[in-house]
Amino acid sequence: MTKSFKPAAYVPPGTVVEFLQDGEPHIAWVLEESQGRLRLLSRTKREVKLAATRLLPWVGPECPPGASREEIGHRLDDIDARRREIAGGINPTELWDMAQGEMERAPAEWFADLLWTEPGVDEVAAMGRTLLEAKTHFKFQPPDFEIHPADKVAARLEREREEKDREAVANAGHVVFAALWARIKSGQPPLSPHVMLREAEGLDPEVEQRLRAVLLAQVARQTDGVDADREALAKLWESLKKPLPDAPHLALQLAQAWGVLPPHHNHFLDEAGYAWGDDWSQAFTDESATQKQRLETLADEAAANAAIDPAPYLSIDAASTRDIDDAFFVAEATLPDGRPGYSCTVALARPCAVWDFGGALDREVFSRATSLYLPEGSGHMLPEALGTGLYSLIAGQPRPALAAEFLLDERGVVMDTRPRLAWISVAHNITYPDAQAALDEGCDDAEGRQLALALRLARELFARRLERGAVVIDKPEPVVSLDGTPENVRVDVSLRQTSPDAELLVSEFMILANSGMAAWTRERGVPLLCRTQDIALPREATGVFSDPVDIFRVVKLLAPPVLECAPRRHAALACDAYATITSPIRRYVDFLNMAQVEAFLAHGAPRLDAAALRAIVPHLSARIQEVGQVQRFRPRYWKLVYLAQRKREPFPAVVVDDAGSYPTLSLPNLQITVRAPRHILGDRVQPGMRFDLTFGRIDPLTNELKVIEAREAE
């Protein structure tokens, strides 16, 4: 072992020393020493005052005092150059391999003895410098160096690698994102996915992939640090976006400009974490196949035992509907007291017949919460093999169902409710226009007579609800259609062809089934997830409203329905209790309610008690709200695209509220509202006045719609 080079109590002038500043070793010459305080001259000819205790534990050589500053500078340069040269030949990793496990800590001299037989002060200083830089393997604890154990070194190396990767991604990202933003501001078209941005040419594929992942994570607003990778992406995004403007949907705009995402990408789906299409169901192919096999066995047994309900059920849906979850059969009946009445059976699809609650598919369907019907297509809650296939009430196919049979008097008042589990085979799937045509023509065949009888009952049901104070909003229904590729899409909006009688028939039977089953389960103590709107409405707020001004006024009086387990009143529907059960293929709330009723009818007890059902409500309500935003906001996005494609064209609007500096107008044919400055509309503006509006700035992405001209309609 060589002699120690630790600083002595007295460091004479002319001694070469080193000290740490900003984490780096600096070489200096001692000019003067006084009671442990040193005056030093650095290589840069700067004087430094320092306590001797701050010197690094390698001191020397000692040179004759009295040298000029120029001579001192040359001497320090020579010594520093020699030490740098020596340090360049030292491999700290090899030193760590030799020392790890042998020692926990050691001075620089000990490590120098591993390489040299008789190390001098320059070798020890070079060794100390090397160990100071190797922070992943050593930690300086004066006067020694702590030798990190293998696990800590591995963790530090991994962090160092990640930091280097982040730095590489950040450096490249600042350049790429700045170039993309310049493209956006200059109005250049988005890049094709197969065309590389000039600033990204030669980019390391892993760096490029990381940058794309940053954008996609931010588009989906995945910044809550749920896992380490997501947290890292969020931190990286915060760094990358600093030089850029604070623009809304910045990540989405950059991703589209780069070709990572297509034009008009549905970011609402990303934010809701809702997988579009049916590819998501591939992970559950085996479970779907198992359900299919089990259900086909049950169907064969039902057919063999003549247990399929012989009633000729009819369904009425839109022509594009593939997930058919309700049908009906209506017949004249005699009440127990001899009065004439109706027998109305609403048959509902029963997708929970062989369902594995708590399984992987159930958890995924719970997360999806509801089907989505958007201008660009449909996203189904269930795998399509189940929702539009196995459980859909397709004519001529035996299906498990809940048959909710209601006995009603001539005025549509429910006298008795008798639900049962059944197997049915729908006789005919009818479209709304075909059903309306049959009703208009008064067809005299069995199907036509049943439709006529069903309409008669529906009108009675509707009349009774109005008597009880129902609120009915009758407004145009715009249909948004898309044509062309995402890069050249053309949007059109037309009003849906109505089938008023057929639509009344279906809507009243659905309300009958939902309210009737809610009342039936309440009497038997079966908890369901209920939609409640327990508010008081003034008399003038009840009835049928079709005028935009009246609709705006009445809707402001309505509170949104609440999902809860208490079967309380739904004011707008004029129902004492209301629990949706008629769309179990499309809504998870209905699915759960169907399972509750099914279990009670089969076993005498619901699947979940009230406490267990209440525990589900908070998460399910939040999930429904998240997914529901897609259904609310996406059609409006396309409507604004429609307006943007027809800029400067006037659109008819009606003033529905004249309060404040910006009165509100409704565009009935688009079913959107907009606010306009009062000075554009005139001083005498009042509700009901009609204008033709011309729009200036229209930004579908930020939901911006600005009125620049309003001409009073003649």
The share of residues in extended strands comes to 15-25%
Quickly count the helices: 19
**Which shape, going by the Cα principal axes?**
elongated
Ends distance: 106 Å
| Number of E strands | 27
* SSE class: alpha+beta
> What's the helical proportion of residues?
40-55%
Q: Spans with pLDDT under 50 lasting ≥5 residues?
A: 1-7
Mean pLDDT: 92
Largest sheet: 5 strands, mixed
How are the strands of the biggest sheet laid out side by side? 8-15-14-11-10
Rg on CA atoms, Å: 39 Å
| Number of structural domains | 4
Question: Can you give a write-up of this model?
Answer:
- The protein has 714 residues and is α+β, with helices and mostly antiparallel strands.
- The chain is 40% helix and 22% strand.
- It has 19 helices and 27 strands.
- Helix 14 (446-467) packs across helix 15 (500-524).
- Mean pLDDT is 92; it is low at 1-7.
